[in-house]
Amino acid sequence: MHDYHHVDGDIPLKHMTLVPEYKVMAEKWIIEGDFAPFYSELARLTLEAAKDNERVVLSHATDKNDHRDHVIKKLIEGGASEDNIIIIQLTIDPRVKARGLFHRTARQVEQAGMTMTGEMTEEKFIDITLEAEAAQPEDGFEVHPKAIMVDISGRDVTHFDNVDKALGLTRSTELPYESICAK
């Protein structure tokens, strides 16, 4: 969209069975609590993409501000201008998020050759998810002081509109929602 090159912030996790260094980074972060190698790699991948692309976007569900700040610091150390770094923090209604998790989980269970049967209804799954999140509020995402907050609860073209508005971008109204999702 908008001619941005996308850097998937989950690349190190998705490729850790193929790239031994990524496995080490993931273990340092998840087991030892040393997030610096993982987030330094995200910055490196972003800077690498910027060598061949004028517009680059890094996407990652980064929950802690010190992790975000580490990426920003590494980007600046690597030559990025602080003025060109924009943090978008997506927000979503908790029920909408839980409903989406239900459908994703059901799809994953089905892909594994199983089914979600018995008493696990969509509403029960949502209630359990909301109760679990309420019991662990410290696991929530910290709000970054420089972030532009964007609500994506609509789960339709409005969340694209909200991101475009936050970034000051315009998009053709002739491009249908399904086409945007397909990109």
Features:
183 residues; mainly alpha; two-stranded parallel ribbon; 4 strands
State the helicity in percent bands: 40-55%
The tally of helices reads 8
Strand content: 5-15%
Find the structural class using helix and strand composition. Answer: mainly alpha
- What topology, given as strand order, has the largest sheet? 1-2
**Any idea what the shape is?**
globular
Return Rg in Å. 18 Å
Mean pLDDT: 89
Largest sheet: 2 strands, parallel
Please report the distance between the alpha carbons of the first and last residues. 7 Å
- How many DSSP E strands? 4
Low-pLDDT stretches are none
Element string (H = helix, E = strand): EHHHEHEHHEHH
Describe the secondary-structure layout.
Blueprint: E1 5-8, H1 11-14, H2 20-30, H3 36-52, E2 56-59, H4 65-77, E3 88-91, H5 94-111, H6 122-135, E4 148-151, H7 157-167, H8 177-182
Parallel strand pairs: 1-2, 3-4
Helix pairs in contact: 3-4, 5-6
